[in-house]
Amino acid sequence: MKVLYGVQATGNGHITRARVMAPALKQAGVDVDYLFSGRPADELFDMELFGDYQTRRGLTFYMGEGAKVKSWDTLTRNSLSTLIRDIKSLDVQSYDLILSDFEPVTAWAAKLRGKKSIGIAHQYAFMHKLPDGWRSLMLRLGVQIFAPVTIPVGVHWDHFNRTIVPPLISPPQYSRTVDEGLVLVYLPFETDETLIDWFASFTDYRFHVYSKRSFAHSINNVHFKPLSRAGFEQDLAACSGVFSNCGFGLASETMQYGKKFLTKPMQGQSEQRSNAILLDRLQLATVMDDFQPRDFQHWLEQPQPEPQLFQDVAGGLAKWIAGDCSEPASDVVRSIWGLSTGVPA
């Protein structure tokens, strides 16, 4: 079984899923080539796991201050001509299957050439009706246009009686401790000045802020750190809570380590708004649309939740893929969740 695995690299959550799937696919005997798009190649880091991977420009969102999508820049700075050229030039004929984590070049190349394609991503959960009001319905068409696949398998915190598997994340790499004074922050679209202003009065706490920067520095109780997978997870294991936008991957890792989660969804990002609604509905996080010191203090004083243990999703999916996906996806989903009934196709 030879597979081309396309990964949307705009956000770290997609790459995190690929990091979990890669060893499982290898153990299942699947020969995999990787393609990443949506981020310049020189901005990818810790990629040794994927061997001699390919990159393409793909599509991405452009963000402004305050974690708001810049619609005009997103529309004008993405190159449709480059995307179309990359899709047409990608050779997929030598592959038995195309696997897409919401990656448009591989997904469209498979569709245009009639290749079987499997979509495994959080976004494919929106192909089903979710209890998030109208947002999953609004997102559905966008998912179909952005990265269409033959068989979509969603990833979410609940199956909602649909073809949706639990979060695809690595087991904890560090022992869980709780430093009540340490707060982990990942708000990459807020300015340093904004974060300093927010946190300066909370002098009983230390805020470890990760973002794209070349060196670490501190201003009073706010400690700015360059992106590092190992350093970030060490702080995640030790902190009392996480303050972040509403990306699916980090929220899932926070649950796994049993840390309280405060989320400020990106403005104009319907996927993050859906995530926020469902986190609130499932009582898994506190949602804050605008920073309010009193609400933030209340969150800091909340107790820690229990760690959540997620099933071996990658192993089950890898075996299914190695078998050319001959088993119905709904049966695989039931098996992963440990269900005897439910989960329609």
From TrEMBL:
This is Glycosyltransferase family protein. InterPro entries: MJ1255-like. NCBIfam families: MJ1255. It holds the Pfam family Glyco_trans_1_3. It comes from the Bacteria. It comes from Neptunomonas phycophila.
